[in-house]
Structures are given as C-alpha cells and as structure tokens.
Amino acid sequence: MRRLVWSSLIGQSLWRVRSIPRWIHKPQVLSSQCRFNSTDFQQSSGYLRTDISLIPQFGNNNAGNKEKEPVMRKSKIVDRHGIRHQEALIMFSYDLYKKISEILKDDNLDKNPRIAILCENDITYVIAQLAIWLYCGVGVPLCKTHPPSEWKYVIEDAQCSAVIRSLKVDLPVLDNVKVIDMPGSEQYSGIQVRPMTFTPVEKVADVDDPALIIYTSGTTGPPKGVVLSHRNLITNMNDMIQEWEWNSSNYKGTAPDIILHCLPLHHVHGVVNALWTPLFCGAIVYMLPRFNVGLVMKLLATSSFNKFTGEEYSLIWKGSQIPEVSIFMGVPTMYAKLIEYYEEHYEPQINTNSASGLMLKHTITTKFSNMRLMVSGSAALPESIMKKWHQISGHWLLERYGMTEVGMALTNPLNGERIPGKWLSGFVRIYYEEVAPDKRPLAPREIRNDRGGNGSNQSPKW
C-alpha cells in the first residue's frame, strides 16, 4: 500500500485567481524544464509559437526567421472527415478567433475570459481551443454526454462569457452568456489552405496566465474547476514527451507516432495526455467520435476494413488503409471491454487451430508488435486485466498516476519491468512512503526526476 506525501513542491499550490471563484484551484509548476524567457512573448514572426507556448501568436508573417519555426508544424489530425495538417489548423483557428473577437467586442471582459467548449471529438475541438488561446481566453471543456443541467452548472460556476458549439444540441437558458456556433468537422473538409497575412493580435497571454479550467469528476462532492496555466500544460507535455519518448515527424529518419484517440475531451487524460501532447511534439492524432469497443479492437488488431460493421465504418476516415497505430491510451474499463470483445469474437476462432484461426492470430500478433506503448490511467489497473491484456497483445500496460490538480506525477518505466500497482519513477521530484497493511509507515523514499524540479532536496516532515 502506498501513500503519497507531497513535498513543498505542491505545498503552496492552491491560491485564488482574480475574477474566478475562490475555490477553483491553480497548481504550481511541477518542473523547471520549461523553455521561456521574457522576450518570447513579443511580436511573433507569423508562426504558431508552440515551441514556446500553446498560444498561436501571429505577427507580420516574416517567414525568414527559421529559429522560430514551431515544433508543432508537422502535426496532423485525422478524424472521420479527413486529414488536417498544421497549416489548416492555423487558418481555421485564426478565422474563429476573429469571429470570437467580433461577437465579444462590446463586452467588458476580464483579461482572460472563460469560454466553454461544447464540441465533437474531432478537429472542431482543437480549432475552438486554439482560437480561445489566441483570444487570450481560458478554455472550459464540457462533456458532450452530460445533461444540459451539468453544462449549466459548469458554465455558470466558471463564469463563462461564451460557449463555442459545434454540436447541434440545445443549450440551457443562460444569462449573459453568448453562443458562438462553428461549423462541424465535415465542413472543414476539402478547404484549400489560403495564403494568409495575420493582423497582430491586440493582446498576448503570459505563460503563467490560465489556459484551461478542467472540472474534476465530482467523486467527493460537486465537480470543482482546476485552473491550469500555459506553463503547467507545457511542463507536463515536455515531461511526457521525454519520459515516454514520443516520436515527432520533425525527427529526421523516424516515423511519427500515431495515437488512436477515443477518450473524453473534458479531463486531463483525453485533453492533455492524448491530444495536446502529440500535437505539441509533431505526432499524428487519429480521433474517433467515441469509444466503440469493436471498432477500437479492429483498428488495433486487424489490417483490413472488410470486417467492419456499417456503424464502425461511419466513425472513421475512409482512407486507403488502417492506420499503423503506435500508441494507445485508455482507462481500465476500456481494456476490460476490449478483453471481453477478444474473448467473444477472436478467441473461439483462434482456438480451433484452423488455417483461418492461425492467420487471425498471426495478424493480431503482428499488429500489436508494431505498437510501442499502451497506457492505462485515470483509475487503478487491476492485475488481472494487466496480465490478460499481456496474453492477448504482448504488451504490459504502462500504468501512470496523475491528478487534475498536478497533471502526471508517477509512471511505470517506458523501458524496464512494469509491476502492477507500483510506480517506479516520477515525472517530478516527489516523496512517498510505503505503508504496511496495518497503515504502519515504512521507509520513506524519494522519486527523483533526472531532469530536476523545483522541489526541496530536504526530506519533508512526515
């Protein structure tokens, strides 16, 4: 049994943010590995400055300064309506930013207005969030499957000035909240990227300004909003990129990672870990509108569209071939459902030892062997699921631990033995103590991050 004991790194992490309800929490930065300086937030040179911040800062399009070319320049998003490259994301988000500015121009807003996002799990979510950051706003993701009463609670609780909506749903009655409709993903298909000259933005967000308000699941009470700054996001993403060795399309001679994304877009797992981190480093995100167990299993384990049902086929892009997914992230329940699907649909045929069964086993083994990382998080991973998934896929799931308030904290090693229920390394410098079954404290231990951190080297008082 293990009990985390946070060092002074987190000790002062809860503080008030002006014009935001006082109980909304903002965590302190978890690492010193950020790439900023005071001059980085001056006028940009026309690039999306994701090497320094997630905020797309546009200037006079001076393309001669190659040092400012962004890490994210070759990122791609694939959803059921097509493939979109970085240049398209820039153009679409800038167009939406201008629409936001026009609609909210007469409102007397705070420096960092909160804007809710009610979008499908596709490119529209990314466009909406980038446009909000360009506006120096704070994104407040809403869960598309929640009832309107819960949307209303979050919107009012976070004091949102507007809601950006791509879903064709009715919103509850909201006072002094404007609705900004944007096209669905299908309407962004086939649009040519046009040459653009960007008008300098009126204001530029600081790295310590809030970027997102993510609401907790509400296990112990009403959901609470957690404010994450741009520095928080970048720090966490840099940690995951380094710890899990994300492959970027910018690395010469290496293929970019492709992550199959089917997580909800209102928690850190789906928003930061599985979406912005791959986009930030130059990888490819293959987005599904939702988790469909049959579809996900077929994308991970088969090499042909022949066995797809009509519903499954409607949820994916009709490309020439199934993507060679290299990373998958899920929660234990998703892996449990994938195991059930395998046992019902694949295992009986494999156990016949017929030619077709042997071929199916070979295909599944080959597909899974081409993947390099499968992650489980958001809940404790039962040992039985970890072992059964290893029998099916050959992968020991990498379990990680995090919180909305602090991001990712602990992880199984990328390379090395992964022990169920035990984390062997940390993204940040953190202390924990082993606790016996009778809750008697055992020897305290420090997890040391080789990249350093801004926590104290002194052992905390237990």
Automatic annotation (TrEMBL):
Extract one GO BP annotation from the record: fatty acid metabolic process
What SUPFAM superfamilies does UniProt report for this protein, alphabetically? Acetyl-CoA synthetase-like (SSF56801)
- InterPro entries cross-referenced by the UniProt entry: AMP-binding, AMP-binding_CS, AMP-dep_synth/lig_dom, ANL_N_sf
Q: Where is there biased composition of kind Basic and acidic residues?
A: 441-451
Q: List the molecular function annotations (GO) for this entry.
A: medium-chain fatty acid-CoA ligase activity
Q: Which Pfam families match?
A: AMP-binding
Stretches the record annotates as Disordered: 441-462
Q: Where is the AMP-dependent synthetase/ligase domain?
A: 95-415
**Protein family (similarity comment):** Belongs to the ATP-dependent AMP-binding enzyme family.
Q: What is this protein called?
A: AMP-dependent synthetase/ligase domain-containing protein
